[in-house]
Specification:
The complex is a heterodimer of chains A (479) and B (674).
Chain A: H1 2-8, H2 17-35, H3 58-70, H4 74-77, E1 78-86, H5 92-97, E2 106-113, H6 125-132, H7 137-146, E3 153-159, H8 165-177, E4 189-193, E5 196-202, H9 209-212, H10 218-237, E6 240-241, E7 250-253, E8 258-261, E9 268-269, H11 283-291, H12 294-298, E10 303-305, H13 326-329, H14 338-353, H15 364-386, E11 389-393, H16 405-412, H17 429-441, H18 452-457, H19 469-478
Chain B: H1 22-27, H2 31-40, H3 45-58, H4 68-77, H5 86-98, H6 107-114, H7 119-129, E1 134-137, H8 142-154, E2 158-160, E3 169-172, H9 186-197, H10 205-214, H11 230-249, H12 255-261, E4 265-268, H13 269-279, H14 290-303, H15 305-308, H16 314-324, E5 338-340, E6 345-350, E7 359-362, H17 393-416, H18 421-430, H19 433-445, H20 464-473, H21 482-494, H22 507-519, H23 532-545, H24 558-572, H25 577-590, H26 593-620, E8 625-627, E9 632-634, H27 637-642, H28 644-651, H29 657-665
Parallel strand pairs in B: 1-2, 1-3, 3-4
Antiparallel strand pairs in B: 6-7, 8-9
The chains are: A alpha+beta (479), B mainly alpha (674).
């Protein structure tokens, strides 16, 4: 659809009326998510692409001044410019109740790197690119204007002092391990002043997801996801789960066609705290276990105990609602890097369906219902057994067979009856390819779900000769 | 068959769960159930097995000429206490007599057999005593041995590679010889005497036994897994006299007999494995859950009374069951505590039913599924979340109108501090998120009656033409509070007829709001442009509605609730940057330059005023949270981080040692030439 629709009416799109409306809707969404306990849409660096340095709110100004005062020495190295985002979770009220699931909390500032010249700056991809070839045409005039001594920007992540040293250590260690990985935000440095720890990261100019996702054509998606999946591939290769893959944590700049993965505040190494889960057994063994289980013997449940003294199953569920993989919802005790693939799949679903967020879930139960609505009871039940659980529901809107993702996309984009005489406008070939890829990512069984590395070999992401280059540029310029 | 009760062993429905009512599973049986029960309904073979086993075990005195399973059946049928037959009494008596013989069975095991209640106690006990144990694996496969060793080591015990005095427990897969001289039954005694007579035989008994075992592969199968001792005993049976004979013949040469003599405990490998399973609940993955154990134990207890509860006899058990309900369930989960699903539900629980449900929620019953509160696909405009309900356009108008009224009502209510939860809930349920905000913004910006019927899209709340004149005369400082004032005022008047108030907020200030709030990345969604009071009101509404999304079976739909939450937050944080700018642009186009300039100046003033206010508010509003370092909740972030406890942690170098080690590595590499 993207291709057809936008090639027909290219420029008007974002000036027309519903632009405004859409924007407002997104606002609602953004806000409602910020309310969520362990997650918020305002990821790090949630600032839009434009460099609005000049307008700094007084409160922020004050906050920054205080930060500079309390953190000795920072003034000499960096000039804080603005607050550009909050790390995990803004609302402290919610945190108190659910602190286990929350990640590192932080505030991110944009700052000028005053002593850039004094250091080796391997992290500076832009600089490298600029020296390799001329800057992209769009930015040329501006860059030239700055000359050699143009200011260098960094993002300073101030980790809240209430985070434990071990948690901070975890994040920094992972970031350090990931140094040099493709499309992963590199760590420039980090330092501490008593309990205040600060991480310095490159500042990436990027565009808010909400501004471009609706306008993406399939080739755009391919570029976007190639970047995302190569980041995931390198992260996963190190045995690290990001746990919080979502648009706000993937800073993408359409005109540069490059994205970086940020915020490893929830990341963990595969196998951390993990306990055997049935999903890692052979299917035969699993079948045995399931058929011999108490639940199987007992037959369907008709209720649940009121005062349940049994222990609850514990599993890491950190992440953002709506992006959690089914195994996270089923509290699988042996989660793998595949949970990130699911989240990336949700991103693709969002883009293909042009609905953000696609899953609105206020909590895990609703997330489960939403996923079940799509996949149907039968497959959910199978998925539940994978993790040694029973999925039982009689919610009438959760059908036995669910829906094909293709149908969902047609329906979401109102193409099922949008054609002449209410016919459906079928997916184009390239869209079908995207859906095939989507199906691989949104596979309920983590063992069967495509890995990041395999994904890069998938027809959807495989690099091909750049034939549609010109078209893309047009699309992107439009943004 | 005078018994009023069908013996549990022959009742397919005996296999009921700790969590469900037997009656219900009978009534509403879905096809899946029936199908399922066909395969599960039969008493598992294991259970039948138990009958035999138990008999052979418990009554070694009996010569094997009576078929034990037949015995079991007789026994069961005559379960009614009043009709206890002489035979039964004899059995019970025999059991009593036997008891000393059972001292061989470890204490730990006994407890585990007693009842489920004690299973935890048993675990604790076992864990305590294990470190003193030294195991010697006399036979059994390498694999099994390795697995067991790992487990017993984990429990603090150790394995001895060679048989010695240090060993406390001998693990074997062979039949376990009876305890020395402690068996009161004549048959055994006599055979013991026999074997003693034949002591000096040269045949290696273990070899014989093993070969007989391998000829009978079924013997070490999975049957009879319900009790620790069972399989071994089962194996005894087929051997009959012969096997016993051989065994006794060579007693002293055998490790097992040596062990007996040395007072070591003899355990069947399977028994150890089962103990381990029970100890390591989940990890062994063998699928034997508490419930399982329990149930089988109790079934046994009911059917073959001698086994499960040595003290209580059948009559007692049955009586208890009548009083307390079937005892084949975790006693902690009595049947009456089961909350039955009435409406549509989602229930996810672990297959072993050892843990709390992973998720469970029930929604109120509805006539049409579209009215259901759970997330479902809704037909909504493009771009919106497909799971969030949205009313169609024509209805939206109506909704909006109602929404305004609702807000008024609610506000009045809130002001009177009457907690009328129902109304609030109802109202919140009736209205989709978007209209709420739109309407609210309209009510805020434009008091005129007209606005009620004007869709947001048409009416531009920021349109300066509508009341720019008025605005000009308003003091700009008003902008900050009017959101509240205007709405409150309106609320009071609205009861009869909505009266346009002259004291309306200026459009421009509103537009400014948007610009400001968009540039301020404000935590908590508490944005500029809404007075704290308004916010408080909203929060109250939310609080009332929130039945607790996380709570079991919460009736309030968290789904809707969040929508409302979103909406109200949107209200407070209405404009995006872009939107704000758009509106400003509009103003610029429509107003003559001088006015625009004026507006701009005013806007600037307002902005500053608001910023000041904002800051104050921020300070007044402490951020509560949780400090991982002090492991303490706090009410005020700023205050907490200056507290003595926190400072103490912060300044203790030890706490930061590991992190510092990493930070040192992270130092920025200096450039040599600069």
């Amino acid at each position: 659809m993207a291709a057809t629709r936008y090639s027909r009416m290219p420029i008007q799109i974002h000036h027309d009326d519903d632009r405004d409306e859409l924007n407002e809707d997104l606002e609602t969404i953004g806000d409602s998510r910020a309310e969520g306990d362990e997650d918020d849409l305002e990821g790090e660096y949630s600032e839009g692409s434009d460099d609005t340095d000049d307008v700094v709110d007084a409160a922020v100004q004050e906050d920054m001044l205080r930060f500079q005062e309390t953190f000795k020495g920072i003034k000499d190295q960096f000039r804080l410019i603005n607050r550009i985002g909050e790390g995990k979770s803004i609302d402290f009220r919610k945190l108190a109740a659910n602190s286990r699931d929350t990640g590192t909390f932080s505030t991110v500032y944009k700052a000028e790197d005053l002593s850039y010249e004094k250091y080796h700056n391997d992290w500076d991809i832009e600089e490298k690119e600029n020296s390799k070839w001329a800057s992209p045409p769009v930015k040329k005039s501006r860059r030239d204007g700055y000359g050699i001594s143009r200011p260098k920007y960094v993002a300073i992540k101030k980790i809240y002092v209430t985070s434990s040293p071990s948690r901070i250590l975890n994040e920094l260690e992972l970031l350090n391990d990931l140094r040099g990985c493709d499309s992963v935000c590199p760590l420039i440095t980090a330092f501490r002043c008593t309990d205040q720890v600060v991480a310095v990261l490159p500042y990436f100019r990027h565009t808010d997801f909400r501004e471009y996702f609706r306008l993406m054509t399939v080739p755009d998606m391919q570029i976007y996801f190639r970047s995302l999946f190569s980041a995931l591939a390198s992260v996963h290769e190190k045995g690290i789960l990001h746990r919080d893959i979502k648009p706000t944590n993937f800073l993408y700049e359409p005109d540069k066609r490059r994205g970086v993965l940020v915020d490893f505040g929830l990341a963990e190494r595969e196998g951390t705290d993990s306990k055997n889960c049935l999903c890692h057994e052979t299917s035969q063994r699993r079948r045995e276990r399931v058929t011999s289980s108490v639940a199987a013997t007992n037959g369907p449940a008709v209720g649940y105990p009121k005062n349940d003294p049994r222990p609850s199953r514990r599993a890491n569920r950190a992440g953002t609602r709506g992006f959690r993989a089914p195994e996270v919802l089923f509290k699988c005790t042996e989660q793998t890097t595949k949970i990130d693939i699911w989240s990336a799949g949700v991103m693709l679903l969002t883009i293909l369906s042009k609905r953000f967020p696609f899953f609105n879930s206020a909590d895990d139960v609703e997330a489960m219902i939403e996923i079940a609505t799509i996949f149907g009871r039968a497959r959910m039940r199978q998925c539940a057994y994978l993790h040694g659980t029973v999925f039982a529901t009689d919610i009438p809107t959760i059908g036995q067979g669910g829906f094909a993702l293709e149908k969902i996309i047609l329906w979401s984009t109102c193409r099922n009856d949008a054609g002449a005489d209410g016919e459906e406008i079928p997916l184009t070939e390239e869209e079908k390819m995207a859906v095939r890829f989507l199906e691989c990512c949104l596979e309920l069984d983590p063992n069967k779900r495509i890995s990041a590395k395999q994904a890069l070999e998938h027809e959807f992401l495989r690099e091909m000769e750049i034939s549609d280059d010109d078209d893309d540029d047009d699309e992107m310029d439009m943004l | 068959m005078s018994s009023r009760r069908v013996p549990l062993s022959s009742n397919p429905n005996a296999a009921n769960s700790p969590f469900r009512a037997a009656a219900a599973s009978k009534q509403k049986r879905s096809y899946a159930t029936i199908q399922r029960e066909e395969s599960y309904g039969q008493p598992p073979p294991a259970k039948k097995q138990m009958l035999d086993i138990n008999h052979t075990l418990r009554t070694p005195t009996h010569h094997q000429n009576i078929q034990s399973s037949a015995e079991g059946k007789v026994f069961t049928r005559k379960s009614n206490p009043s009709q206890q037959s002489a035979f039964e009494r004899k059995l019970v008596a025999a059991r009593e007599r036997e008891r000393p013989a059972q001292q061989t069975v470890t204490k730990a095991e006994k407890t585990s057999e007693e009842n489920l209640e004690s299973i935890r106690a048993w675990q604790k006990h076992t864990r305590r005593s294990f470190p003193k144990f030294v195991f010697y694996f006399e036979s059994g496969s390498e694999d099994a041995r390795h697995k067991c060793i790992k487990q017993i080591v984990a429990l603090g015990a150790r394995e001895e590679k060679f048989f010695s005095n240090a060993v406390t427990h001998v693990i074997t897969t062979r039949p376990i010889p009876p305890e020395l001289g402690s068996n009161p039954a004549e048959a055994v005694t006599s055979s013991t005497n026999d074997s003693q007579n034949r002591q000096p035989q040269t045949i290696n008994p273990s070899l014989l036994d093993r070969s007989s075992e391998s000829a009978n592969p079924d013997a070490c199968g999975t049957k009879g897994k319900f009790t620790f001792d069972a399989p071994m005993n089962r194996r005894l049976a087929p051997h009959g006299h012969d096997g016993e004979h051989k065994r006794h013949q060579v007693r002293n040469a055998d490790v097992l007999h040596r062990a007996r003599e040395l007072g070591m405990k003899l355990w069947a490998l399977e028994k150890l494995q089962r103990m381990m399973t029970t100890m390591f609940d989940t990890d062994t993955g063998s699928g034997i859950a508490h419930g399982h154990n329990t149930r089988s134990n109790t079934v046994q207890g009911t059917v073959v009374a001698p086994r499960a509860n040595r003290e209580a006899d059948l009559s007692q058990l049955l009586r208890n069951e009548r009083i307390n309900g079937p005892s084949d369930r975790d006693p902690m989960l009595a049947i009456k505590d089961l909350i039955r699903f009435k409406g549509p539900y989602i229930f996810i629980y672990d297959i072993d039913e050892k843990q709390k449900p992973i998720m469970v929620r029930e929604y109120p019953k509805v006539a049409h599924k579209e009215d259901g509160d759970w997330p479902q696909f809704r037909s909504v405009a493009k771009g919106k979340c497909p799971f969030v309900e949205e009313v169609d356009h024509s209805r939206r108008e109506l909704e909006k109108e109602r929404e305004v009224q609702r807000l008024q009502r609610q506000q009045e209510k809130e002001q009177m501090m009457i907690p009328r939860t129902r109304a609030a809930t109802e109202a919140s349920k009736m209205h989709p998120p978007r209209p709420v905000s739109n309407k609210r913004s309209l009510a805020e910006m434009d008091g005129s009656n007209r606005s009620l019927t004007v869709s947001t899209r048409q009416g531009n709340p920021f349109d300066p033409r509508e009341n720019s004149g008025r605005t000009a005369t308003e003091p700009s400082s008003r902008g900050t509070q009017n959101a509240f004032v205007s709405r409150a005022g309106q609320g009071r008047l609205f009861g009869g007829e909505p009266v346009a108030s002259g004291v309306q907020p200026s459009n421009i200030t509103s537009a400014i709001h948007s610009t400001i709030s968009s540039t301020v990345a404000q935590p908590g969604g508490n944005k500029v442009g809404t007075s704290k009071e308004v916010h408080g009101l909203q929060r109250k509404v939310l609080e009332k509605n929130s039945g607790g999304p996380g709570s079991y079976g919460g009736l309030a739909s968290s789904h809707r609730m969040t929508d409302i939450a979103a909406a109200s937050r949107e209200e407070s944080n209405k404009p995006t940057k872009r939107r704000g700018q758009d509106k400003l642009a509009l103003i610029d186009e429509d107003i003559d330059p001088s006015e625009a300039e004026q507006n701009a100046r005013r806007a600037e003033a307002t902005r500053q005023a608001e910023a000041v206010q904002q800051r104050k508010r921020e300070k007044r509003d402490p951020k509560p949270g949780y400090c991982e370092n002090c492991q303490d909740k706090f009410e005020d972030f700023e205050e907490h981080i200056l507290s003595r406890k926190h400072r103490k942690f912060a300044e203790k170098g030890d706490n930061w040692k590991d992190l510092d080690a990493l930070l040192n590595q992270l130092a920025r590499p200096r450039r040599e030439i600069y």
